[in-house]
Amino acid sequence: RLVDRGEQHHVARRNRANEGPRKRSDLESRAFTKQGMPSMDTLVGTWPQHAAVFAEMGALLEKKLWHELTVNVEAFYTEEDVRGQGTLLLQVYEAVLRPIEDKLQPFRLAKLAVQASEQIDSPESAIEFLNDASKRVEQMRTPGWEQADLLLQLSMASLQVQGGKHAAAKTTIQESKVKMDCIQDPLPELQAAFYLASCDSLKANHQFSQYYKNALTYLAYVDLKTMPAEDKTMFAVDLVLAALLGEDTYTFGELLRHPLVEGLREGPHQWLHGLLENVDSEDLEGFEAITNQHANYFNAQPLLVQNKAKIEQKVALLALVNRIIGASAVNAEFTFDSLAKFSKVPVARIEILIMKAISLHLISGHMDEVKQTLTVTWVMPKQLTDKEVKQRGDSVDTWSKHIYNVLLDMENEVPELLLEA
Predict the structure, then answer these.
(1) E-strand spans in 307-358?
(2) DSSP reduced 3-state for 363
(3) If residue 207 lies in a helix (H) or strand (E), which one and from where to where?
(4) What CA–CA distances, in Å, run from 163 to 125, 171, 213, 248, 381?
(5) In principle, which of 98, 118, 282, 370 could form an S-S bond with 319, CB 3.0–4.6 Å?
């Protein structure tokens, strides 16, 4: 089935919370964040393996070196083994950062609060934690607080989706968009947070075409090196599924070239990458072969199974478009028989396929039902894959060599004409 980000994040939260040396229930986490803040001694006693790091943080606190302290905590938060240790990040936030929040740069503080919230068991408690942080940021009114608050709001929107509060999430995202439009040059991290929250909401509502567009935009703002490997795979799978299921998504060159999707070539999702390649190359037989060969994987995705006929129609439409792109003439005329053969659909259905292509703005033109022809005046440009670019390049090279040979023949046969010219 389509990967459920909410469910996966909920499981990830539960797993992270249970990995630490001191397990903390949801109610305990909530009481912890509202009633009391741990001391540095508590951190050292709970996680003695990080005593040296905590000592360094304490020294920076004592010297009031706020920037250096922020850098130190940011580095600590990004360590792979640290992120999976119970409520460690949450306790560090409460013990080290919470007492001096008004001394720190708001946006960087908000990013650390979002990371800490990932270790809270339930979406509801995480929302409460971030909402409290949002109120404090708003009260500070220090330069940059608006973008910091928006980052917290958008993170809460994603959590609302995870908690099943889709209407509330949509409202939060819309209100955040209005506020972002009033900010000159929003930070890339804020833009990424907006598109990620939008993706979560669109995905939950099965709006695949919009999800696909927002997901590609999100990837333009995020550094893939900062994404955990599991998140990369999950996002790539979602992206490919949205491309296949999106009703107005008919070009996949950009997607197939993206390094995130390239990562699916190996591993358990290799079949899905192959499926996308076959759709892009209008290979219906290859598409059927993969669905049969990897039936267990394919059938585990209900949305693919339910929409298999629509995906097959997408393959036929792409074949139709590619046949037209391959014609060199302007206002090219095609017979229904030739288009049906190329699209691998019965002649009786080719008119319906042509009308579908016109309605989707894949082509422009008109049909002559008496002559059984289609005259095309415009066709949707196709984004080429690296393989297709090479094929086009080879064709140009072949054509160039042919022209050169023709020129040599002309020089040999009519040299007097060339001299006069």
Answers:
(1) 333-335
(2) strand
(3) none
(4) 10, 15, 24, 29, 41
(5) 282
Please name the residue that has the structure tokens 């298999």: 308
Tokens 């020089």, residue located: 411
The two tokens of residue 78 are 């990004």
SS3 379: strand
List, for the chain, all residue ranges whose pLDDT scores fall below the cut of 50: 1-7, 10-11, 13-35
Residues 119-175: pLDDT tens digits?
Answer: 998 999 999 999 999 999 999 888 889 999 999 999 999 999 999 999 999 999 999
For 272-310, give one letter per residue: b (16+ CB within 10 A) or e. bbbbbbbbbbbbbebbeebbeebeebbeebeebeebeee
Give the phi and the psi of residue 198 in degrees, each rounded to 5.
Answer: -60, -40
For residue 218, give the H/E element and its range. Answer: helix 208-221
- Say if residues 148 and 186 touch (Cβ distance below 8 Å): no
Contact indicator for 336, 372 with CB cutoff of 8 Å: yes
